[in-house]
Amino acid sequence: MRNGNIITIEKLSKSFPIGGGEFTALSGIYLTFEKGEFSGIVGPSGSGKTTLLNILGSLDTPSEGQTNVLGRASTQMNPKVAAKLRKQHIGFIFQTYNLLPVYTVYENVEFPLLLLKKTAAERKKAVLEALEWVGLTDKIKSKPSQLSGGESQRVAIARAMVKKPDLVLADEPTANLDAENSHHILQTMEKLNQELQTTFVFATHDEKVIGYLRRIIRLEDGKVVSDENIKK
Amino acid sequence: MIAFKLAYKNLMGAGLRTLLIVFVLSLAYVLIIYMNGLYQGWDRQARIETIAWEVAQGQYWQDLYDPYDAMTLTDAHATLPASLEESAAKGKAAPILVTQATIYPEGRMMGVMLKGIDTRQKILSLPTDILDPEADEITAIVGTRLAKSAGLETGDYLLIRWRDVHGTFDATEVKIAGMFKTAVPAVDQGQVWISLTKLQQITGMPGQATLVVVDSAPEEGASLSGWEFKGHDFLFKELEEMIRTKTVGGSIFYIIILALALLAVFDTQVLSIFRRQREIGTYIAMGMTRKQVVGIFTVEGGMHAILAVVLGAAYGFPLLLWTQKSGIKMPEGTDDFGMAAAEHMYPYYSVALIIGTIILVMIATTIVSYMPSRKISKMNPNDAIRGKIQ
């Protein structure tokens, strides 16, 4: 980490082989994120938002340049270190919720803590607290198939937040939700950001989400075209 | 622990598919244990019967004796060494004199082995006390197999012809004093048993024997000049070969069942990995390494084998116990194979057999589960999270 930033991106490029050639998804990105930010990478489909988010989440690696996420440089990160970083410090929220279908709400939220080898008492306390944040304490025994889209995404938020991560990466979290549920979800995340000082980075093109962001980074064709802080 | 918990939940969630695979796997367990138990039981029973009726704790063979060589048999006899003579007097050894002979039941001619045995012996189960070495006429005992093939009954007289020590033919009628029923064809088919002293008399070989059955194996290294000790290792070699051959033959059936079950596990794994890519991606995003995810899926596949143990025990245990208690009726003519076979075969399910089978099936299932799971290590987690077909 440099200058108190939790994320530093320098000269980042990412290309994918397509057919005989290459597709450049990201090119020459320089960005920094500070602790407690509620920011979003905004842009149309194919602009490279998800690719950037995946690189920040150490699910992908840069083709050129480097990132430093929570003190771990991408150039020095092997799959094991990357997995440990995700396990301990990063929470993910996906567009399609990605809840484990055979687990109950409680077990889904508990899962990251099992990976962290927390004791049963610690897990129970943390899971109930996380479910309280998202208002789902009455659904702890439900299976994902018994939940609405909004409820599923709230479970996903609880799962991402239960370990109190330093960074939450949310990829189009409201894409499958109606307006009411979207606002509910975003208010919950905003509240958690303020209460826990967790850094949130969204990848989105949803205007509802954009309305909540305090920093908007616009991407077009893999390049940052604007980066503005919004006063709330 | 997570892997086991998750695997259990996924298997339960799969419902009927899991049940079918688990049932076929359990069938493989039960069949493997049953078939091998049958052969082990046969082997065990054959050994017990053969020890009781034929070999006891071992045999001393006169140096020239070879049961499969008719040419040397005429010379395979010698006076007993003093130590064996002494053992025989104490009832610890039973000398047997063997010679070729011909019987003429109902006008037919049949080659037999005429065997003289000490009538006081208690080492073998042969009812030799029926034989009267003092009587003027020669008395004989035969097994029910020979009696059946020669049409003999107790009290019948049977014309028998043999050659004495000089090669001269002689013949007389012997009286069938009794019959015995045994599971060991080697002492029954083509065997006529008379008193040792009578046979020594009529062949002109006083004090001589071809082999001596003993009630305890001698200490290692102890040897007698002109006589060689044959222990169980040697005497049961053929039986073991035969059991091994039959075991291999019988195993084809359960290998097919096991292969079907493993194919179902493999197929389920392939389908499961294909359908659950999003779940795989989520595990990786939550901080699991690909290796750990491969482990989860391998455990899940392998757990079919654990559930199959439970199901197999539920119906297999009483079934196997029942077969062990009541035995399995063997078809007529089973002993024509030449090995000891009783009317009922009692399977023997040893702990080693049961544990060995469980380990075998579990290892095979785990390997088959692991093979398709390796695909996970090549998956792109970003595509997997979004459920993109890979």
Care to describe what's here?
- The complex is a heterodimer of chains A (232) and B (390).
- Chain A has 232 residues and is of the alpha/beta class.
- Chain A is built from seven helices and ten strands.
- Chain A has one domain: P-loop containing nucleotide triphosphate hydrolases (Rossmann fold).
- Chain A is 34% helix and 30% strand.
- Chain B is α+β, with helices and mostly antiparallel strands and 390 residues long.
- Chain B folds into two domains: 199 residues, no CATH class; 173 residues, no CATH class.
- Chain B has a six-stranded mixed barrel with strand order 3-4-8-5-7-6.
- The longest helix of chain B has 40 residues.
- The mean pLDDT of chain B is 89.
- At the A-B interface, α2 and α3 of A face α1, α9 and α12 of B.
Quick structural overview:
Chain A is an alpha/beta fold. Chain A is built from 7 helices and 10 strands. In chain B, a hairpin with a 5-residue loop joins strand 6 (157-163) and strand 7.
What is the helix content of chain A? 25-40%
Give the CATH superfamily of chain A: P-loop containing nucleotide triphosphate hydrolases
Please summarize the sheet with the most strands of chain A.
Answer: 6 strands, mixed
Q: Which of globular, elongated, flat, extended, rod-shaped describes the shape of chain B?
A: elongated
How do the strands of the widest beta sheet of chain A line up side by side? Answer: 6-7-8-3-9-10
Count of structural domains of chain A: 1
Please give the share of residues in helix of chain B.
40-55%
Query: How many β strands of chain B by DSSP?
Result: 13
Structural class computed from helices and strand pairing of chain B: alpha+beta
Stretches with pLDDT under 50, minimum 5 residues of chain A: none
First and last CA, distance of chain B = 28 Å
Query: In total, how many beta strands of chain A?
Result: 10
Number of domains of chain B: 2
Strand line-up across the major sheet of chain B:
3-4-8-5-7-6
Low-confidence stretches of chain B: none
Structural class of chain A: alpha/beta
